[in-house]
Each structure stands twice: as C-alpha cells, then as structure tokens.
Amino acid sequence: MLETGSRILVIDDEPQIRRLLKVALAAHGFEMAEAALGREGLTQAAMSRPDLIILDMGLPDMDGLEVLKQLREWSQTPVIVLSVKEQEETKIAMLDAGAEDYVTKPFGMGELLARIRAALRRSLKEAAEEAVLTLGDLRIDRVKRLVTVAEQPVKLTPTEYDILKTLASNPGRVFTNTQLLKAVWGAGYQNETHYLRVFVGQLRRKIEQNPSRPIHLITEPGVGYRLM
C-alpha cells in the first residue's frame, strides 16, 4: 500500500489532537513524529525527513505561516494545514506560500486520511509527470494539447487550456485565485479575479456534463479552484 511506512510529522499544540492522530495514523500503516511548537516542528522536519507534514495554523511560539515559509526555504515536503473556518484569509496565504491542502477543524478522520493519501500520491507522481491525464470522462493530453470529454474532442481557447493545464499539473490540489492568475496571466493580475470567474464558467460549459453542478472543476469558496 502507498501509505505503509510513510512518515507523517504532526505539528500541533493540542495534545488530544496529537493522540487522536497517532492512533489513527498507526492503524493505517503510517509512522508518526510529533511537535507541539513551531520551532520544534522545523527541527523535527530536518531530522526525521517526513513524507508529509500536518501543520496547525495556530501555534503558541510562532505563526503557522512563518513555519511554512521557513520550511519552504529548504524543503518541498507536502504540507496539509489544519485551520478553523473563520481563518479564510490566512488559509489562502498558506496555500500561496506552498501548502498542499487544508482541512477545516473540526475534521473527520476519514477526510483527513483521504487528503493524506492523495497528497502522497501527487508527491510520488511529480517526479514522473504523466503526459496524459484521465479524470473520469475527462482526458487531457499535455503533449498534444488535446482535451476530450467522453472521447469527444473539446475545443478550448488558449486561456481556457492554460487554466486547465495549470489545475491538471496537480489534480486534487487547491490552487488559489492568485496562483492561477499569476500562472495564466502573469504578474500584475493577482487581483483580477473576475477574469477567472468568466473563463472558469466558459471552461465548465465545455468539460462538464452539468456546468451548474461540476464534478471536475470544483470551486473552493473564497479560496480558488481544484481539478478533481
């Protein structure tokens, strides 16, 4: 199994959450290291070289965002952020700074485990990116720049294709509005979110069976989009 033997570092100051995660992760074949403080977590990350990090945004000694920024100076280990609902702006900042995904407290253990498995799969695939990506009835050939839905070719504009290609570079990962705008339109367009709304709407009409209830191009309200 993919997760067997994978090392997970949990950085969270709540002992009950660390205990809960330790039991659940061990039951699913993970090894777990833990830290209650941000600085301790950075030291643990350097020493244990985990395959994935679960990082709480509210730590007593330093902000979770600062922990992530320092980590990203030397490591690209996938990070899943634990947040609370009202921390939307900080959540966006964490994703922009390089977090892989986030889970909102209180979280279901099944959801967290699914996010962990997905992040580990993406991490393993990054080194050998597939030329053809198949997501249900959606097929994206990134070499030939061809997109089909239910084996029927779909004609996309260059901008629509660039949005889809960016999301397809890491399926399942949340891309913030800022990340997408910079990737597709370039620096200086980070605040032009209306561009995204227009082109995502057009793209959904071409790749979704029911654009009003999309199954591929999913909106993360107030944050951005992910390709499922």
From TrEMBL:
At which residues is the DNA-binding region annotated?
A: 130-228
Quote the protein name from its UniProt record: Two-component system KDP operon response regulator KdpE
Question: What Gene3D superfamilies does the annotation carry?
Answer: 3.40.50.2300, 6.10.250.690, Winged helix-like DNA-binding domain superfamily/Winged helix DNA-binding domain (1.10.10.10)
Which is a Pfam family this sequence falls into?
Response_reg
Which segments constitute the OmpR/PhoB-type domain? Answer: 130-228
What GO annotations for molecular function exist for this entry?
cis-regulatory region sequence-specific DNA binding; identical protein binding; phosphorelay response regulator activity
Q: Which residues carry this modification: 4-aspartylphosphate?
A: 56
Q: What is its main location?
A: cytoplasm
Note the SMART domains from the entry: REC (SM00448), Trans_reg_C (SM00862)
Q: Note the InterPro entries from the entry.
A: CheY-like_superfamily (IPR011006), OmpR/PhoB-type_DNA-bd (IPR001867), Sig_transdc_resp-reg_receiver (IPR001789), WalR-like (IPR039420), WH-like_DNA-bd_sf (IPR036388)
Which Gene Ontology cellular component annotation is one that this UniProt entry carries?
A: protein-DNA complex
Question: Does the UniProt entry include the keyword Phosphoprotein?
Answer: yes
Could you tell me which residue ranges the Response regulatory domain spans?
Answer: 7-120
Top-level taxon of origin: Bacteria
| Record's subcellular location | Cytoplasm
Q: Does the keyword Transcription regulation apply?
A: yes
Keywords, ordered alphabetically: Cytoplasm, DNA-binding, Phosphoprotein, Transcription, Transcription regulation, Two-component regulatory system
- Native organism is Hydrogenispora ethanolica
GO BP term, pick one: positive regulation of DNA-templated transcription
